[in-house]
Amino acid sequence: MKKECVTMLLAGGIGKRLGQLTKNIAKPAVPFGGRYRIIDFTLSNCIQSNMHTVGVLTQYQPLALNKHIGVGKPWDLDRMEDGLTILSPFTEHDGGNWYEGTADAVTKNIHFIEQYDPEYVLILSGDHIYHMDYNELLNHHKSVNADVTISVIEVPWEETSRFGIIHMDDNYQITNFEEKPNDAKSNLASMGIYIFKWNVLKECLQLDRNNPYSNKDFGKDILPYMLLKRKKMCAYPFSGYWKDVGTIQSYWDAHMDLLENQLLLQLNRKNWITYSHDNNFAPQLITSTGSVYQSLINNGCIVSGLVESSVLFENVHIGKHSNVKNSILHPGVRVGHHVTLDRVIIQEDAIVPDYTNISVPLSEEPIVLSNEYFPEIQKVGGMNR
């Protein structure tokens, strides 16, 4: 069945810089925003953009991610003829191995793409927070008749070393590409969103497969090769909200953006809904001893203490005389009585003992805590940081 455009969603990254958050789950499966997981944003963009043929490439710690995605029902991708397909590493006749990089993951699934005989292939990352109409990107790609179009956005200069940096002329044509430079000459960053002409990408992937010196990566290998061979590479400037939550600090910052309405306004758009699973917990309860200021409180939460500038996922309980400030509490967290938490991220189902006191200064990165941490402080009846 022919499709104009096939989407390949890269969701197998380890996410090392997220530390404890990705110890047991893939980065795209990390909870975000009170009721979502990170990958929900990209999948929702796909269905809102009528991109119905989606291959999700998984690898690292896929259990929670696969369980969450299922057959794609929350995103209307549980379809008979196209829809969502999980593409895990598989054994070939010569033994096979893990995906060696982002480009290698797509190369090993050429057979999946070919069955739809597409003109274009959209490459996405499953670990960014943003809303985008991919049809606008595709139309731009067609209008400039590019071999590849890269979606780009301006980032703070101090963060340029985290990204592929783009240089373009007045006609959107890319003149240079630097992968995570130490001394960037531009702050125009690749968003990890590419549209290729399929015949051009297929040729590049096949050549790259046979290169023993390649990292099998789009940013390190495929894009520089296309630039070297003078393929037509164009940029698509994006002006909306976008956040690569690839570090603890950026993950925490994105949640604080929610509380300042910058991102929350997007999540409340009725014409561009971010879809996810709904666990159908009862409505939140703020008891007579509880107070909430500038915070997101999800269903199933019971607040008997003070919550300020924080995000509480579903089914979180806050005990009496406890103060939770500038923090992110994942589903099922239980906070005892007389607890103080400031600038911390508490992972799913953790139990915070009574009289715990953990406050992280603004000069330090927020910390991530789980049940592995709290038994140590239960022994001494509390801890000051």
Automatic annotation (TrEMBL):
Question: What is the scientific name of the source organism?
Answer: Gracilibacillus xinjiangensis
Q: Where is this site: Could play a key role in the communication between the regulatory and the substrate sites?
A: Q59, W98
Alphabetical list of NCBIfam families matching this protein: glgC (TIGR02091), PRK05293.1 (NF003670)
Q: What does this protein do?
A: Involved in the biosynthesis of ADP-glucose, a building block required for the elongation reactions to produce glycogen. Catalyzes the reaction between ATP and alpha-D-glucose 1-phosphate (G1P) to produce pyrophosphate and ADP-Glc.
From the Swiss-Prot or TrEMBL record, give the protein name: Glucose-1-phosphate adenylyltransferase
Give the multimer and partner information: Homotetramer.
At the top level, the lineage of the source is: Bacteria
Involved pathway(s): Glycan biosynthesis; glycogen biosynthesis
Q: Which family is this protein grouped under?
A: Belongs to the bacterial/plant glucose-1-phosphate adenylyltransferase family.
Per its record, what are the GO molecular function terms? glucose-1-phosphate adenylyltransferase activity
Q: Which CDD domains match?
A: ADP_Glucose_PP, LbH_G1P_AT_C
Where is alpha-D-glucose 1-phosphate annotated to bind?
Y99, G164, E179, K180, S190
Span of domain Glucose-1-phosphate adenylyltransferase/Bifunctional protein GlmU-like C-terminal hexapeptide: 287-360
Q: Which InterPro entries match?
A: ADP-Glc_PPase, ADP_Glu_pyroP_CS, GlgC_bac, GlmU/GlgC-like_hexapep, NTP_transferase_dom, Nucleotide-diphossugar_trans, Trimer_LpxA-like_sf
Q: Which residues form the Nucleotidyl transferase domain?
A: 7-260
Q: What is the lineage of its organism?
A: Bacteria, Bacillati, Bacillota, Bacilli, Bacillales
> Its Enzyme Commission number?
2.7.7.27
Q: Which reaction does it catalyse?
A: alpha-D-glucose 1-phosphate + ATP + H(+) = ADP-alpha-D-glucose + diphosphate
- What is the enzyme's class at the highest EC level? transferase
